[in-house]
Structure formats: structure tokens, C-alpha cells
Design goal:
The chain has 698 residues and is α+β, with helices and mostly antiparallel strands. The protein has four domains: 128 residues, PAS domain (Beta-Lactamase, 2-Layer Sandwich); 170 residues, GAF domain (Beta-Lactamase); 161 residues, 2-Layer Sandwich (Heat Shock Protein 90); 129 residues, Rossmann fold (3-Layer(aba) Sandwich), CATH 3.40.50.2300. Helices cover 43% and strands 21% of the residues. It is built from 23 helices and 24 strands. The strands form five sheets. Strands 1, 2, 3, 4, 5 and 6 form a six-stranded antiparallel beta sheet that branches. A six-stranded antiparallel beta sheet has the order 9-8-7-12-11-10, sandwiched between helices. Helix 5 packs antiparallel against helix 6, helix 11 packs across helix 17 and helix 20 packs parallel to helix 21. The longest helix has 63 residues. The relative contact order is 0.06.
């Protein structure tokens, strides 16, 4: 803004007759919109107009007599004095602030960005300089830039907080405070959509109205303010609540004098999860800049939610995985012990001295029942740790649910109403039928216990082409992109708290009283679903029931039929030559007894090397079957022994066994189809059936 040289007084146009020149120029000085200061050579303020007083926060009389140095920030005051002295030696019209930022200091110490134009009056014979000061923050573009800078600063603050803290609630608490401060509004709040999708929960806020306290629940139907945002799935601007007709405006808003509002949704991987809203007592308060700021803030919130949920899911999965590894190892050792216990009990039961003693038979039977319960316990542990042997097949969920419901109606409390919503056209799933039925039964029993006074139990199945976002990360990318069938079981029971829901799949965790549960029900369901390449989700709330949903893969190809097995012991030829390899001497003794009673000729070895030497020393082809444990201690494993032995003796049948199901799973993927795998503990009849199968397919 370059000022022209001051014209001489003689060149100014003449004023109308009767108008005093001095009064005109004084009126111009007083009414001029820019701030004007008349300064002497020493820097003292001689005159100031009302605009200057308003801009700088002084009264006009307070400014007169001050030195202009008082209006300069302390940090640059020494330099300003030098500039003023140099200017006084060669005064000239000069604009300031076009190439650099100038700041004026107000009376209260605050600062304002300005432009200054200096006009010396020496050419008119006056020892003064006129300083014209303009608040550039009043420029629309500058004002907009400052506004954007302020918004960016608040976004950066929340971004740093989101990175620095692991506590999501801290981020949720700060977001509305920052929104209210940045936008200079009275109300700001964050609402999160409940898992049921039926209600919003007020997570945080400032200036909240009655009924919107932290933790309050607001229905998500479209006639509520947040519900309308949910229905629209897009930002909603309210210019005037008094004229709003799209949804019901709470009376509390009007009573608080609130007039306008802006609300934006936020999403987690495309799924609506919440609303960030602000309200103001000014009409038409919110425009594009405010919308962009609030959307950026909501994106930060969504990112923080995603990160925390991902970290929690990873931590939860790691905890379950570590517990699974521990339980799998325990189950392996326990299965060896059970093999010895069950085997000796079976041998003891058949001894002549015991067979004719009724009391002894009762004792043996009681011990056998206890050992079978122990085997069931280890089976559940293996199910949770995803180390059980499954036999996936095509399962018609429509037929299974109706069959299960019939059984439950006979066995559950008669006050529990059971209903099924399952279309016959629902595609079959690929799963182990027995394990799936057991999983559904476990969930139904849990539901029964959550409804001590009766209620409703609802089964539902539906095909889904993709997993919902909350369980998508539980599977690998390859498995997660398949087609699934969702099997949901909903009860009207007591529901769970967030703390209980978080631990629901942990083994041995139970909220039931002592003696009413092992805490393995849902953990076995979890293991079965995960091992079946599926996912599981729980939606629950205290007092509002629970829905457990299993997502199982749809059947893509026909499953292999299960072989019928009858009279296995009779199918074993007398005198069958068996090489038995087992490193545990107690287990080896029990299995040798089983084989002997089955009419077999047995050579036993404690390790692979000893077994190979025995087979080499015998006549070629003198052994019909190799029965070997997979884990044989130091040295060669059972799978390697079997491969070596079959290479040397091609007609040798192979039967491998283990108490550690993960070994069987690995072997199932690696070994030829003609080999048979047997899980410990097993009874003599189970051993006989496995031998019959492998001998039937040489």
C-alpha cells in the first residue's frame, strides 16, 4: 500500500462556503476506519483516533502521551527504537508489513497482526508522522487462514495425544473439549454406537444437556439427533433448531438456547461406529471450514479407536495363544498318563480274579469313568488350543438346528422358549459335525444358565459373502475373503459386562458358582471355530441378553465320506506281526498287552534306531504293521522312522499315535493317506479299529 506524496495545501480542492477546514480534517481523523496515530519526533503520541483506541485496547486519552515503543512487543522493542531513529533522520512515506509480519501489542499484553503506513508531515511544516494501522486479521482471506491455522493446531494436539497415550478414553475426553475450543461453541460431544446397533452411548462431552450425561443411552432410530446422522450416514448441519423438522429436537436444547448444530459420523473400516457433534447458540454457525475441521477430528478419533481395538485384539489373541500352547503341552503329558491308567484298568477288568468280584468291578468301573472324564477334559483343552483332530464334512445347519432344538426342548427348562430362523436353502458349512453340535450345545447351556427364570433362545442362520469388520482381522487374508454362514444364538438372559465379555473365551474362566461349570465351554467353542477357519463374535450388554455368532466357511466341494467301522477286532488276522515303538515304558507295556490280547505277535522298541535294527535283523517282510509314537525323545521321530521303514519294507502298514494332537495335525498334512493316525488315550477297541483301517488299505 504505497502512499502518494502529500500534496501542498494550495493544491487541495476548496471547501464549500461556511465549512471550516480544521473541523473537516478533525472529523476525518476521528471517523477514519483505520487506526491513526499522530506521533512526534521523539515517538510520543500526540493524537489518536477511536479506531486506534479500540484496536489497541486503550481509551483515546490513555494513548495520548504514550511513546509508540509501548505498542511494540518486548522481544523486538530494542530493534524498533533503532528503526524509528533511522526513520526520523530521513522521513518518507512508507508502507510496513507487506513483506514481513508486524505485530502490535495491546494494553492487556495480547498481540495483533497489523500493517502500518507511515506518512511524514514535515513537508507541510509540521514535525509529526501519521501512522495508519490496520488489523489484517480482519481481512477475510487472512481471517480464514488464521482460522485454518488454529484448526490445524488443535488437530495436531489431538494427533500427538493419540500417539502418546494408549488409553482411548483420554483421547475421547479431549476430542470434544478441543472441538468446542477450536470452534468457539458451547456444546461438543462424542457418541459411540452400541454393538447391538440399537443405541448410542455418550462417551464424552462438554456443555451437555440433561439426558446426555456421560454414559447415557440414546436410541439410534432416525427421530433422534444422532440417529438421524446414523440413518443419513453423512454429515448433518442444523441451521436453526426451532425450524428443524427432520427429527425431534429435545426440549433441553431449546431451553439451553442452542440454535445451530453440526454432526459428522465416523467409521471403522467402512462400518458406522459413532458421531461427533457440536452445537452453538448462534444461528447458521457452521460452514465448510467447520465441517472440514470436524471431519478431520472424527477421522482422528476413528483411527485411535481402530488402533486401540487392533492392539487389544492382538493382545487378547496372544494371551489365548500362549494359554493354548500351555494347555496343549499339559494335555500331551496327561494323555500319556491316561493311556496307562485306562489301559491297565481295562486289563484289570478282564482278569479272572476281578471279573467274578462284583465289588472290584464297581471300583474298576468308577476309576474308568473318572479316567474318561479326564480324557474329556484334555479333549476340551485340545479344542481350545486348536490341536484337536477334526473331520470336516458337509453340515446342513438347517437340519442340525432343528434336531438340536428338539433335544433342547426336552432337556432345558420348560420356561425357555426356543425358536429357529433358518432357511432350508442356506448353504452347508464345512465343519466337523460332532464338534459343531457340541459347540452349539455349549452355547445353549450357557444361555440357559443366564436365564434362571426362563426366557427365549433364538437360533438363526444366514449366508454372508464377507465377514463383518469386527472379526475380519481374526483370520488370514486368504481365509477371511471366503464365503461364510453365520450361525447366531441369542438369549434374553442377564448379559455380560465388558470385563466378562473380554475374558469369555479364556479357559477355566467362569462367573458361575463353584461346582456349576469348568469354564471350558466357550473356550472349546472358540478353539473349534478357529481351527475350522472361521470366526466368532459376542454381542452383549448387562440386562439385555447375549448373541454369540459363529462364522463358518461355506462348503466349496464335497467332503470325503466317513468310513463305517464294525467288528474291527475280528478283522485283525491272528498272529499279525507288529513292531511297537514307544519311548514311555508304562505306555509301551499297556499297548503291548492290548496287542497281545488282539492275537498279535509283538516286538517292542523304545526308540526308532532300535526298531530299525530289529526289523533289519528279522527276515525281510516279517513285520506286517509298524505302530509307533510320533515323539520318541532324542533322535529320530516316528514319522521319519515310518518313512525309512516303508522305503525298506514297501508292504509294511503304518499306524502312528500321539498324545499331542498338534503332532497328529502336522502328520496329517505331511504323511501319505495310507498311514493311519491314532490319538491317545485310546481303548483297545479304538486301537483295533485303527489297525483294521490301515490293514484294509495296504
Amino acid at each position: 500500500m504505497k502512499l502518494p506524496s502529500s500534496p501542498s495545501v494550495a493544491s487541495l480542492p476548496r471547501l464549500p462556503s461556511g465549512v471550516e477546514e480544521s473541523s473537516v480534517f478533525r472529523s476525518l481523523f476521528v471517523s477514519y476506519p483505520d487506526s491513526l496515530l499522530l506521533v512526534d519526533q521523539a515517538g510520543g503520541i500526540v493524537l489518536a483516533n477511536p479506531s486506534a483506541a479500540k484496536l489497541l485496547g486503550y481509551a483515546v486519552d490513555e494513548l495520548v502521551g504514550l511513546n509508540v515503543d509501548v505498542l511494540v512487543p518486548d522481544s523486538i522493542r530494542p530493534r524498533h527504537a533503532a528503526y524509528r531513529e533511522a526513520y526520523g533522520q530521513a522521513p518518507r512515506p512508507r508502507p510496513m508489513g507487506t513483506q514481513m509480519e508486524l505485530v502490535a501489542k495491546r494494553k492487556d499484553g495480547s498481540e495483533v497482526m497489523v500493517e502500518i503506513a507511515l506518512s511524514p508531515l514535515q513537508s507541510q511544516g509540521l514535525p509529526f508522522v501519521v501512522a495508519a494501522i490496520r488489523d489484517i486479521g480482519a481481512y477475510p482471506r487472512v481471517k480464514q487462514a488464521l482460522q485454518r491455522a488454529r484448526y490445524s493446531d488443535y488437530l495436531a494436539q489431538l494427533g500427538r495425544l493419540a500417539v502418546d497415550t494408549r488409553d482411548l478414553q483420554v483421547v475421547l475426553d479431549h476430542a470434544p473439549t478441543m472441538a468446542a475450543e477450536a470452534l468457539e461453541v458451547e456444546v461438543a460431544m462424542v457418541l459411540l454406537l452400541d454393538d447391538s446397533r440399537l443405541e448410542f452411548r455418550v462417551a464424552s462431552g462438554v456443555g451437555l444437556s440433561p439426558g446426555e450425561e456421560i454414559g447415557a443411552r440414546i436410541p439410534s432410530h432416525a427421530n433422534t439427533p444422532p440417529g438421524f446422522v446414523f440413518a443419513e450416514g453423512a454429515p448433518v448441519v442444523v441451521a436453526d433448531f426451532a425450524k428443524e423438522r427432520r427429527f425431534a429436537v429435545p426440549q433441553a436444547y431449546l431451553d439451553a438456547g442452542l440454535v445451530s448444530a453440526l454432526a459428522v459420523p465416523f467409521y471403522d473400516r467402512g462400518r458406522f461406529i459413532g458421531v461427533l457433534t457440536v452445537r452453538s447458540r448462534e444461528a447458521k454457525r457452521f460452514g465448510d471450514e467447520e465441517l472440514r475441521f470436524l471431519e478431520s477430528l472424527s477421522n482422528l478419533l476413528a483411527t485411535s479407536l481402530q488402533r486401540v481395538q487392533t492392539e487389544e485384539a492382538l493382545s487378547h489373541a496372544q494371551r489365548l495363544e500362549s494359554v493354548g500352547q500351555l494347555t496343549g503341552g499339559i494335555a500331551h503329558d496327561f494323555n500319556n498318563l491316561l493311556t496307562v491308567i485306562q489301559g491297565n484298568l481295562q486289563v484289570l477288568e478282564e482278569l479272572p480274579a476281578i471279573a467274578n468280584d462284583g465289588y472290584a468291578q464297581q471300583l474298576v468301573a468308577a476309576a474308568a469313568r473318572a479316567s474318561r472324564r479326564g480324557a474329556e477334559l484334555t479333549s476340551k483343552l485340545l479344542a481350545f488350543s486348536r490341536r484337536q483332530m477334526l473331520q470336516p464334512n458337509a453340515v446342513d445347519t438347517h437340519a442340525m438346528l432343528h434336531s438340536l432344538a428338539d433335544m433342547l426342548r426336552r432337556t432345558l427348562d420348560q420356561r425357555i422358549a426356543i425358536s429357529i430362523d433358518s432357511a432350508p436353502s442356506c448353504p452347508p458349512v464345512l465343519a466337523d459335525p460332532g464338534q459343531l453340535e457340541s459347540a452349539l450345545l455349549n452355547i445353549a447351556i450357557n444361555a440357559r444358565d443366564a436365564m434362571p427364570d426362563g426366557g427365549t433362545l433364538h437360533f438363526r442362520t444366514e449366508a454372508c459373502s464377507a465377514l463383518p469388520p469386527e472379526v475380519h482381522n481374526e483370520l488370514s487374508d486368504r481365509d477371511a475373503h471366503g464365503s461364510f454362514v453365520a450361525i447366531s444364538i441369542t438369549d434374553s438372559g442377564t448379559g455380560m459386562t465388558e470385563e466378562v465379555k473380554e475374558r469369555a473365551f479364556e479357559p477355566f474362566f467362569t462367573t458361575k458358582e463353584a461346582g456349576r461349570g469348568t469354564g471350558l465351554g466357550l473356550s472349546t467353542v472358540y478353539g473349534f471355530v478357529k481351527q475350522s477357519k472361521g470366526a466368532i463374535a459376542i454381542a452383549t450388554r448387562p440386562g439385555a441378553g447375549t448373541t454369540v455368532t459363529l462364522f463358518l466357511p461355506q462348503l466349496n466341494e464335497a467332503a470325503a465320506p466317513v468310513m463305517e467301522e464294525e467288528d474291527a477286532e475280528q478283522a485283525i488276522p491272528p498272529g499279525l506281526r507288529v513292531m511297537l515303538v514307544e519311548d514311555d515304558p508304562e505306555v509301551r507295556k499297556v499297548v503291548q498287552t492290548f496287542l497281545t490280547t488282539l492275537g498279535c505277535s509283538v516286538v517292542a522298541a523304545s526308540n526308532a534306531e532300535q526298531a530299525l535294527m530289529s526289523m533289519e535283523a528279522a527276515d525281510a517282510g516279517s513285520f506286517d504293521l509298524l505302530l509307533s509314537d510320533i515323539a520318541l525323545g532324542p533322535g529320530m521321530r516316528g514319522t521319519r522312522l515310518a518313512a525309512e521303514a516303508q522305503q525298506r519294507f514297501p508292504n509294511l502298514a503304518i499306524l502312528l499315535m500321539s498324545g499331542f494332537s498338534s503332532e497328529l495335525l502336522d502328520a496329517d498334512r505331511e504323511v501319505p493317506q495310507s498311514w493311519e493316525l491314532l490319538r491317545k488315550p485310546y481303548a483297545r477297541a479304538e486301537l483295533a479299529r485303527a489297525m483294521a483301517r490301515v490293514l484294509a488299505h495296504p
